[in-house]
Write a structure and sequence with these properties.
The chain is an alpha/beta fold. It contains seven helices and 13 strands. Helix content is about 30%, strand content about 25%.
């Protein structure tokens, strides 16, 4: 198998050379039925802390399979301390946001209920599954943490003021993101509102905080999920992480 097209899975077992790992039923189905691998084929596994390892399928059962860890493929590297806070969207759009935020490289994902949020809270376990699958595909070595849904008020009440907070302001009353974002080195978080934007009360609160930075993404109004991708990508580029 080409290293470029390697098949990757995340495992919760601490990995090291010359041990065996039992894949659960879902992983076994993916490897054996979806990817059509067999005994002797190569798989790559990562555990979110010890790096990525080259493995080989050594046995197959009805509902699982066993991998033997052969050698380390690459060392562990951790993503920048960037959080995404986003107002809950419709199910498919929430899924899109979680997947793309994982691929772009955030360390924590926090669904938020704002004044104009009208959709039901997402299931945390489902979002964690999306994060795992996106990390496998994106060749990440770590998995973003998925927090439980929280209200806007609760979020700010428990906020660590050492973490800068960038919020998207569609009112055009804020400076451009290109001007503001370079001031915000990690630890940092980006907060994106719902389709209707933040309420006037929420904007007043955000503007009053000494650790928050309102930014504009231009004169056009972006869909919430588009704004998430644009803001995260811009921050990564300005931070020099895509050089």
């Amino acid at each position: 198998m080409s290293k470029k097209n390697r098949i990757r899975i995340y495992v919760e077992t601490d990995l090291k050379e010359n041990i065996k790992v039992v894949c659960d039923e879902k992983q076994a189905h993916y490897l054996l039925n979806v990817m059509r691998l067999k005994i002797g084929d190569e798989v790559y596994a990562f555990d979110g802390k010890n790096g990525e390892f080259c493995c080989r399928i050594v046995s197959v059962g009805k509902k699982n399979c066993v991998l033997r860890i052969e050698q380390k493929f690459c060392d562990f590297f951790e993503s920048q301390d960037l959080w995404l806070l986003f107002a809950i969207l419709k199910k498919d759009n929430t899924d899109f946001v979680v997947e793309k935020a994982t691929e772009i490289g955030v360390k924590k994902i926090v669904p938020v209920v704002t004044d104009y949020t009208s959709n039901s809270k997402p299931r945390t376990e489902r979002l964690k599954t999306l994060v795992t699958e996106a990390s496998e595909q994106a060749r990440r070595q770590d998995l973003p943490q998925v927090a439980e849904c929280i209200t806007f008020k609760e979020l700010l009440k428990m906020w660590d003021k050492s973490r800068k907070l960038i919020y998207l302001d569609e009112s055009l009353g804020s400076k451009s993101a290109i001007e503001q974002m370079p001031k915000c080195e990690p630890p940092v978080a980006i907060l994106v509102g719902p389709e209707g934007g933040f309420s006037q009360k929420e904007l007043e609160i955000l503007r009053s905080l000494d650790y928050s930075y309102g930014v504009s993404l231009g004169k056009t109004i972006l869909r919430a999920e588009t704004a998430v991708v644009a803001a995260l990508s811009l921050w990564q580029a300005l931070a020099g992480n895509w050089q």
